[in-house]
Amino acid sequence: MNGLLVSIFADTRQSLIWNVMRIVRDRQIAEDLAQETYIRASKAMEHGTIAHIEAFLHQTARNLGIDHLRKRATRSRVEAENIDPSIVLQVCQDVPSTEEAIIERQQLAHLSRALAGLPERTQTVMILSRVENWPNGRIADYLGISERTVFNDLKLAMGHCRDALARYEKT
């Protein structure tokens, strides 16, 4: 049965290539897809018989051509061909080095210890304001305190953190 497939494929190979080339508009890709068609037909024959081998080859080749176009369209949406090299360099430069990342982690740990030394309400005000980006009015309503108290707690926390980072940088 495999000899029959080889014979039919050899007879229809050029027709397959031309039909696929009309879809993908590239002879090399059409030839590759024709070969893929043969491989798929051969595998299908191993699992059972194909009633109409020539029709199967043409339909498989057509489907492979359409799949190729879909993949190419998806790839072109994902890949950017005309990226300005300066943008790529800028992205690479924005990534901190390992040393910078370690230093930043150490600063964050030091800052966390400094915040832990503040009263609980002051810590909460600082986190809601600077981490969660809540406005002072919302923080005041949430905690049941005045906006002026929120402002004062924030001022205390910011000063405390600034002093803690200054001490850290001296060491």
TrEMBL record:
Domain RNA polymerase sigma-70 region: 15-73
Entry keyword set: Sigma factor, Transcription, Transcription regulation
Molecular function GO labels: DNA binding; sigma factor activity
Pfam families tied to this protein: Sigma70_r2 (PF04542), Sigma70_r4_2 (PF08281)
SUPFAM superfamilies according to UniProt: Sigma2 domain of RNA polymerase sigma factors (SSF88946), Sigma3 and sigma4 domains of RNA polymerase sigma factors (SSF88659)
Domain RNA polymerase sigma factor 70 region 4 type positions: 111-161
Record bears the keyword Nucleus: no
An individual GO BP term: DNA-templated transcription initiation
Family statement drawn from the similarity comment of this UniProt entry: Belongs to the sigma-70 factor family. ECF subfamily.
Name of this protein: RNA polymerase sigma factor
Cited InterPro entries: RNA_pol_sigma-70-like (IPR039425), RNA_pol_sigma-70_dom (IPR014284), RNA_pol_sigma70_r2 (IPR007627), RNA_pol_sigma70_r4_t2 (IPR013249), RNA_pol_sigma_r2 (IPR013325), RNA_pol_sigma_r3/r4-like (IPR013324), WH-like_DNA-bd_sf (IPR036388)
Superkingdom of source: Bacteria
